[in-house]
Amino acid sequence: MILGILNENDQRVAIVPQLIKKFQSLNFEIWVETKAGETANYSDEEYEAANGKVTNKSEILANADVLVSYHPPSDDDLKLLKPKTLVVSMFAPYADDAIIEHLAQFDIIPFSLDMIPRTTIAQSMDVLSSMASVAGYRAVLEAANYLPRYFPMLITAAGSIKPCSVVVLGAGVAGLQAIATAKRLGAVVEASDPRAAAKEEILSLGGKFIEVEGAQDDTGAGGYAVQQSEEYLERQKVHVQERAMKADIIITTAQVRGRKSPILIPASTVEKMRAGSVIIDLAASTGGNCELTEDGKIVKKHGVTIVGDSNLAAKMPTDSSFLFSNNIYNYLKIMVKEGQIDLDWNNEIIAKSCIKPNK
Ligand code: NAD
Fold it and tell me: How far is the CA of 174 from the centre of ligand 1 (A)?
């Protein structure tokens, strides 16, 4: 069976050479488009040395049994695939389900990695968690880069430096990694998240929990947050503003799946922040948690640097590609039996992540 990888408009590559041997154990040959791994520091020579085939895009599309990518392939590419090719990508149907109908016109079997259930058994396939974890770590380093101050407390002959104060809004996978990273650098960290489990998770990493009363019950939401009431969000903004005035860095990751992200930092809060402070908004692509965020841009407003970037995992392409490849291996493993694709529709992971109607 042939597993095809294209050279995407992204720093990352879907399969790294180190993993080829594992895919071969599932009976996959890896065909990779020329220079697909270059920006992630995996050369064509490394793919060839690991028994991958480096070739052109049209040959991959014409022969692949499975095509794996970060971004959904274009319609022109989908048209060139063989009938019944498995296309594994991040189609995000929860944000716009029109994609399901759109894909139904092609004779392919689409699987959306972002629909894999967030269960313990599926953890090793969870690309959302892998990428969010990289993004949370990188968010702290980005912030440190713009901050005109130290992170740790320092006592020197030339005077004492206070530890930097970091506020994290949204303590899911990215937020928790940001808390851990900022703590390691010596910051004092406070965080807010309405999920019932969040308080304990924040405290266990050495963060302080920002208590906001009246969060909606998220039992049964599959680990995701549910939409909060206007009253809760208003109360939360007051707590956030109090902290923002003293903060050096705010990292925001607050998202409610399938909805616009809540505004937690209105422009009036940014005005009250200290000059030189930094906001990293990982929710930028879904509207942003800060009113002044511009998606894909770094702007300076009222002396505050605001970085709007929801794709920070792509800025660490070597490791994020490695983690993504492992997730894909673990995912495809459940679809292969005795060296052939054999889809078990009773398997919850396969059934829920396949987005073909009437499968
Ligand atoms: P996400 O990216 O959808 O959202 C990020 C965070 O924003 C969430 O923690 C959410 O609660 C928070 N948020 C929403 N509204 C907010 C508000 N008004 N203020 C502050 N925060 C707000 O979430 P995610 O990181 O992909 O995952 C969320 C949770 O899912 C995880 O923390 C975990 O509990 C669960 N999960 C479970 C597994 C597993 O068991 N395999 C894997 C991954 C995630």
Answer: 8
